[in-house]
Amino acid sequence: xxxxxxxxxxxxxxxxxxxxxxxxxxxxxxxxxxxxxxxxxxxxxxxxxxxxxxxxxxxxxxxxxxxxxxxxxxxxxxxxxxxxxxxxxxxxxxxxxxxxxxxxxxxxxxxxxxxxxxxxxxxxxxxxxxxxxxxxxxxxxxxxxxxxxxxxxxxxxxxxxxxxxxxxxxxxxxxxxxxxxxxxxxxxxxxxxxxxxxxxxxxxxxxxxxxxxxxxxxxxxxxxxxxxxxxxxxxxxxxxxxxxxxxxxxxxxxxxxxxxxxxxxxxxxxxxxxxxxxxxxxxxxxxxxxxxxxxxxxxxxxxxxxxxxxxxxxxxxxxxxxxxxxxxxxxxxxxxxxxxxxxxxxxxxxxxxxxxxxxxxxxxxxxxxxxxxxxxxxxxxxxxxxxxxxxxxxxxxxxxxxxxxxxxxxxxxxxxxxxxxxxxxxxxxxxxxxxxxxxxxxxxxxxxxxxxxxxxxxxxxxxxxxxxxxxxxxxxxxxxxxxxx
Length: 485
Known about the structure:
Blueprint: H1 2-15, E1 20-23, H2 28-33, E2 49-50, E3 53-54, E4 58-63, H3 67-82, E5 87-92, H4 94-117, H5 126-147, H6 165-179, H7 196-211, H8 220-230, H9 238-251, H10 257-260, H11 263-284, E6 290-300, E7 303-312, E8 318-320, E9 329-333, E10 335-344, E11 349-356, H12 367-371, E12 376-380, H13 384-392, E13 399-409, E14 416-426, E15 434-449, E16 454-468, E17 472-479
Parallel strand pairs: 4-5
Antiparallel strand pairs: 1-17, 2-3, 4-6, 6-7, 7-10, 8-9, 9-12, 10-11, 11-13, 12-13, 13-14, 14-15, 15-16, 16-17
Helix pairs in contact: 1-13, 4-5, 4-11, 5-7, 5-9, 6-7, 8-9
């Protein structure tokens, strides 16, 4: 509702003439709409390695109606991981998918809580840091307990559905570890590399201690794990965990030069991982409309790249909406490939490229279900507010989405800028089909220092919406918080 209200305000601004337009200079649209990544630049599909152990290069999650077959498939996937197979395929029932989506929501909450305390530019007081970390660990423990539930604990003979999340969590954490140059799981014993609770706790501790400029002490992970496992409920562990962590961060030595380099990659992970989990959660809640999803690890552009192939059942569509303010609806049909380049040189942007897969994935034998109607991701300006904007001033057009570019930067001691650009090709329009939708969120902030703490205060937020056609740029600017007197 908040987003709808803002869009309606924007539509009213159109009536008042607050959305301006200007002619583009020759070459402007070429520069803005030039694609940065495509399927050809992904590089070879490779098996990542962690602590000398080879992981699958391809993970396939396929819809299957049976809980029994799904449970057997999950058990078989664990064996395939032990065998260091190059490909793992997992059958996921709709019931498993619903539970998996709930777990993703809880994991996203834990990451967002961590992001609040992980300020890499300035130190924060130990108690605030420890409290935030304890909250994140309690959230992680709730996820771990659901994922690692023993079948004997299932109520009324029901299948412990959370077990379906274990392979996906394993895959995601290994990817984040790659993005951090292997530093997240560097100290984890090889036997723990596929134990969900161990890798989640290790990841949280490494991220949090890097944020505090400290290096982990011997025995800290074991003490945290013991406290989490003995608590009756995850929330009951928050107090004891906060005490353990407060003592640990005060006694821990400063991070070495090698570990100091972890801050940049971890900040990047914390900036995009919550939104990535939100997108996966939305897709999972529409699992009954999908045939399968495949993830692959590539090595290209001098960095690890993850590519996902989404196959939607014939006659169905899968939607991503309301993830960020002013976001148009993204609609998946047929089979599409999505490639994520997290740190494109030289700009440092995160680039997400979208490409249709013609005829679906023939090797899977499911063309009739997933690829017969052709693939692609469509961007739609739906709803009353967008309708008013189109009617009154903006020549918005639905079309095929080609690329999303995200850049997060800082201009001063605490200011933060987020730029999101969507490159698309309008359908049903004459002439040049290229369009660019651009959002910018600028937070003017200052650091407020006290005797024992430092906190960030947002004084003003500026939001800018740009829509570029072949010959014009349309701009709407909004001040969310008035500047101080």
